Amino acid sequence: MDCYTANWNPLGDSAFYRKYELYSMDWDLKEELRDCLVAAAPYGGPIALLRNPWRKEKAASVRPVLEIYSASGMPLASLLWKSGPVVSLGWSAEEELLCVQEDGVVLVYGLHGDFRRSFSMGNEVLQNRVLDARIFHTEFGSGVAILTGAHRFTVSANVGDLKLRRMPEVPGLQSAPSCWTPLCQERAAHILLAVGPELYLLDHTTYSIVTPPGLVSGVISFLLMAVFLYLHLALFTDTGHIWMGTASLKEKLCEFNCNIRAPPKQMVWCSRPRSKERAVVVAWERRLMVVGDAPESIQFVLDEDSYLVPELDGVRIFSHSTHEFLHEVPVASEEIFKIASMAPGALLLEAQKEYEKESQKADEYLREIQELGQLTQAVQQCIEAAGHENRPDMQKNLLRAASFGKCFLDRFPPDSFVRMCQDLRVLNAVRDFHIGIPLTYSQYKQLTIQVLLDRLVSRRLYPLAIQICEYLRLPEVQGVSRILAHWACYKVQQKDVSDEDVARAINQKLGDTPGVSYSDIAARAYGCGRTELAIKLLEYEPRSGEQVPLLLKMKRSKLALSKAIESGDTDLVFTVLLHLKNELNRGDFFMTLRNQPMALSLYRQFCKHQELETLKDLYNQDDNHQELGSFHIRASYTVEERIEGRVAALHMAADAFYKAKNEFAAKATEDQMRLLRLQRRLEDELGGQFLDLSLHDTVTTLILGGHNKRAEQLARDFRIPDKRLWWLKLTALAHLDDWEELEKFSKSKKSPIGYLPFVEICMKQHNKYEAKKYASRVGPEQKVKALLLVGDVAQAADVAIEHRNEAELSLVLSHCTGATDGATADKIQRARAQAQKK
């Protein structure tokens, strides 16, 4: 116990701080950190160094070198800097390195030195140059704040969605502020800067002078500022005082006099979540000081030039040879390991140790905990403390103690214990020297497992990421599948391997893994200039809807058309056809369609509704005279309005039908041309509407208009059969109620349709009197039906009996109703009986 707490340093009466080594750095730095631009990402992130930055004492011929290392000092990338002078480096939340140049251009690089993109901070920054820059993080993303040579600030709160805001000018500002920092308040980025003894807060529209409450008098200038989660602010003054308060500058937390007036190199906050203690770490060349709300401070001697990295729950400190972590001792660890502690967790840990020694003291410790009813609390303390330990041996001791205590509890839920074991295995794996991500338990929970997996993938540590997914049993789509997809996207960038080998390796590894899109991998291959590899990868993509768009993008339109046709998705085929139409000349486009019958058919359907002229060209090219004739007929009714144009269209249709050897269609078309001309003449001579009527309707219209001779002449001209003509005339005259003319017409000659239709038409017009005239003229075979139509059931019965026709007898019997037809029904029944006797 005493040895374990040897590196604990008290800050006041309520908090301890400890500093332990994370790694012995493996890098081989040729220069001191002070001679480099340095940027280290939070959450155990990588370290970027720009060696030989632009300084007057350096020779102009020496090019800077940008180097990226893991937190353990393992080299990740090294590249010769060939761009302009760099003012500042910083890491985004996605672990992309932002390099702010003097001309206001920001270059973005990946972890392995791969160039991603660049953007400019505006023309004003370009004209006035960059004096200083800060990379900061907000809830919206990663932002950049620029101080120009004109002493104006330009800010973008999110580099992923670049929106530049020029901050208002501070009146009378003739030189750079002594210190400044970005703030995020009320969902907007602000700038806090110090000019002499004054503090200015700049928002998007105006500035305001702010005064820290309770600040010691006599301050001439502020030398350094530090912000923690945009909630707390620390100010280092020229008097050696450190003021700590809220970032809104409305409340003072504490103030400390460090009795050192020399400006420090760095000042960062050192706090942990849910802690009431607030402390600031200040670094000079060879001294490190931890100050808070206590009269004393904690001081460390720095043997080497060091750099501070603020974290969520502490401060990382790396130098030429070591990488350490300074933080406040968590409550659970403090209660368990504090000297002479009688906390439940401390007693349970001792009980477990005595149990391993087979000592009876284990029982005494357990009884003491159980008598106080604190065994559950003791187990929870040991589990929580294990999470905050960096050394695996201490983690095991605490988890053994928790497991030992669980054995004496009836209903202790195992979830927290199991989850902590899983989390610590993951943390110990990523903390390994060769991985170099020294996450604490608090940082891990804040970061989430998905983000950690993303960071392993960005470091190309695919096997470890997959092992973690399998160990935690994450869903495939969120875990293994996603990682394999990233691996495949990296694999296609290896240009020293042939396309076939890469495609085969990817397919063997991925297979039909759910959640993996081969089209996304193929798109990455195409983006790397490997078109043939992309096509090979698309062969493994089962969804045609994903294949076709990329093939079109790669200008493999004919292959895209084949894939679309294979899919059976007509919408997809139409998409490719329209793309081909715009890409190819007319002749090549039609030739491509001729080789794809389904596509040709679909395109014809499209042209029927959208592009009629194109449809005609298609029929002409294919010598499809039958369809061409049909096209001209449709055009004569839908496109042409003048009678001459319609007749001309029909004439072309007739010619096409003759070429197609369809004489019937050709003759019918010629007849239609004659009819159109005749209808036009009828309109001119008689008035009325004749155009576009059918031949039958034209005849009927003439009869209804009293032009019987013209109707008969028309019937002769177009060879209308007599039966049809009689039907047309019969219907028309009945419609006119011209019964006299109808009777004359019926007597003009023998009716080719018989006289039953006359009866039916008269009854349809509700004229029984006229119907009876024709019923007597109906032939014997239809006599019964005619008599029944006019309602003469008795006479119909007599005729049926005379004919001795069973069907007619049954028909008449079905029409006998009520008492009035009773005698007739009896008569039919007697006739049937007599017929049966014979």
From TrEMBL:
The GO molecular function terms of this record are:
actin binding
Q: Where does the protein principally reside?
A: membrane
Q: What is this protein called?
A: Vacuolar protein sorting-associated protein 16 homolog
Q: Which organism is it from?
A: Loxodonta africana
Q: What keywords are annotated for this sequence in UniProt?
A: Coiled coil, Endosome, Lysosome, Membrane, Protein transport, Transmembrane, Transmembrane helix, Transport
Would the keyword Transport be found if you checked this record's keyword annotation? yes
Q: Name one GO cellular component term.
A: lysosomal membrane
Q: Which residues form the Vps16 N-terminal domain?
A: 4-419
| Domain of life from the UniProt record | Eukaryota
- Record's bilayer topology term: Peripheral membrane protein
Q: List all membrane-crossing ranges.
A: 215-236
Where does the Vps16 C-terminal domain lie? 516-834
Location of the protein in the cell? Late endosome membrane; Lysosome membrane
Subunit and interaction comment? Core component of at least two putative endosomal tethering complexes, the homotypic fusion and vacuole protein sorting (HOPS) complex and the class C core vacuole/endosome tethering (CORVET) complex. Their common core is composed of the class C Vps proteins VPS11, VPS16, VPS18 and VPS33A, which in HOPS further associates with VPS39 and VPS41 and in CORVET with VPS8 and TGFBRAP1. Interacts with RAB5C. Interacts with STX17, MON1B. Associates with adapter protein complex 3 (AP-3) and clathrin:AP-3 complexes.
> What does this chain do?
Plays a role in vesicle-mediated protein trafficking to lysosomal compartments including the endocytic membrane transport and autophagic pathways. Believed to act as a core component of the putative HOPS and CORVET endosomal tethering complexes.
In this entry, which stretches build a coiled coil? 348-375
Family of this protein: Belongs to the VPS16 family.
Keyword hit for Coiled coil = yes
Gene Ontology BP term (one): endosomal transport
